[in-house]
Amino acid sequence: MVCNYFWMFCEGLYLHTLLVVAFVSENKILKWFYMVGWGVPIPMTVIYALLRRQSTDPKDTH
């Protein structure tokens, strides 16, 4: 879910960059968008998965 929000943020920021800052190199800015879109959610997802794994009861079948 976090990744979806970061990608929506990146898409909005990309559109903003196209409209307002027309003279920025597109290749350079796309690299930053990929890093934000994929790089930021990864640590959050790993932390969530580890916490979820620790908090589940192995005897619980539901």
TrEMBL record:
Residues 1-62 form the G-protein coupled receptors family 2 profile domain. The keyword Chloroplast does not apply. Pfam families: 7tm_2. The chain crosses the membrane at residues 6-25, 32-51. One of its GO terms (cellular component) is plasma membrane. GO terms for biological process: adenylate cyclase-modulating G protein-coupled receptor signaling pathway; cell surface receptor signaling pathway. It is a multi-pass membrane protein. This is G-protein coupled receptors family 2 profile 2 domain-containing protein.
